[in-house]
Amino acid sequence: xPDPSSSRDLPLNYANFTLFPEILTRFSDPGSAPKAFDGRVxxxxxxxxxxxxxxxxxxxxxxSGSRRVRLRKDLHFSHDDPxxxxxxxxxxxxxxxxxxxxxxxxxxxxxxxWVKPSDLLFxxxxxxxxxxxxxxxxxxxxxxxxxxxxxxxxxxxxxxxxDVYTKHGALQVNHMLDLLQTAATRQEILMRxxxxxxxxxxxxxxxQYIKLQQKFLSLDQDNAxxxxxxxxxxxxxxxxxxxTSLHQKGIPVWFVRKVEATPDARIDRxxxxxxxxxxxxxxxxSGFKVDGIDSEPPHRVIWEGLPDKTERYAAMSKYLxxxxxxxxxxxxxxxxxxxxxxxxxKRVEEIPVLSEPLSTKxxxxxxxxxxxxxxxxxxxxxxxxIKKKSDMPAANPVWARALDVHxxxxxxxxxxxxxxxxxxxxxxxxxxxPSSPKSRAFxxxxxxxxxxxxxxxxxxxxKKVLISAKxxxxxxxxxxxxxxxxxxxxxxxxxxxxxxxxLESLI
Length: 507
Hints:
The protein is an alpha/beta fold. The chain has 13 helices and 13 strands. Among the domains are: about 250 residues, no CATH class; about 80 residues.
């Protein structure tokens, strides 16, 4: 039996923690207020992952590894849904940590926003006339309309027209209220109601985020701290700067890192973590139960990848939009613009991130000269992006899907020395990357010439060759008839001669 008296000197890891749980709190200091890196509560997980919170009383199991996101029976995304479970903080959606925690209190001002979809919400009294169609229950409609009007009144005056997120969020809420008064099938009515709940909660979070930023920036920046917001979802973080920022703003935050990074962390109290049970359900500290069982038949997996990717949330939004709206025969100019689907209107990179209140930004009339150029910033090309250009044919569907799936794992780090970072096929950016249409046409014709030869070589393991992006360009130059040049004068000429030899060996 291990001696408990010697446990204080043991290194902190999961193996020692299972024998001596008290080593987790050996540096506790309940008498003083915890700082950002301290833990009012903490837990050590099996993978030696340490999770602490300086301003929360409970812990959630942090999402890790590859996530498989799909819609569930109750029209939510279970523990991947920011409405019901804390998510890793994402600077493109900074309002998500301020979504209100679901409550079981029927007198809560937002109680109707957490009503679960059921047949009781559907009023099909006119089904004999409309053939199985109906509307939302009248009492429920009045309640959610009242809540929507309350939230819309909270929009700051300076944001009503100038903030694209808030503006489109308000339009979306009003549009959904109108849709709920239009007869539809039971499934469509429940989907509209659920989507309106999501719009209201996220619009409220966006408004609270703006107000919080304004309040925070009005304080003394040397010692700025906002009172804690205990009724919001909060967020997971793994970066010290993000941790400090959220803690100063009073947002519940959970700091996740490997235990060896901070073996002497202060943790005042150890608690268990909230996670899904074997029935895919979990209960929030407020008593609200989230049922994560699948529908019959289950919805498809709409996104697979790491939990902190911006594209994960965009995929949720786009999928909900696809279920909510049917394609119109003549097309539609409907502005599907809410905080729930801003990323589906434009690419995330093209939308300005609201990282500060609008009152701190300089607004200029259109007739006044602008102090800075309006030219968009040049952004680096991504190898896994599929470009759409009028002079280029559409990508092969299988290739397009493969690129989309693997784009979540794309990183911009240099490959280790022992890893061959070459390509079996030319990176798409080499073909459709040049700005000149003539150059794009040249490289596309070159690829068509060598494509059968390259694909044939891939079938023969002895002829498989990994080629760097630079050498692929030289190979396409050779295939297109570009002059080889003097082998001893330039590196490009040497590379072209090497690729010519490679092509000859493949023939």
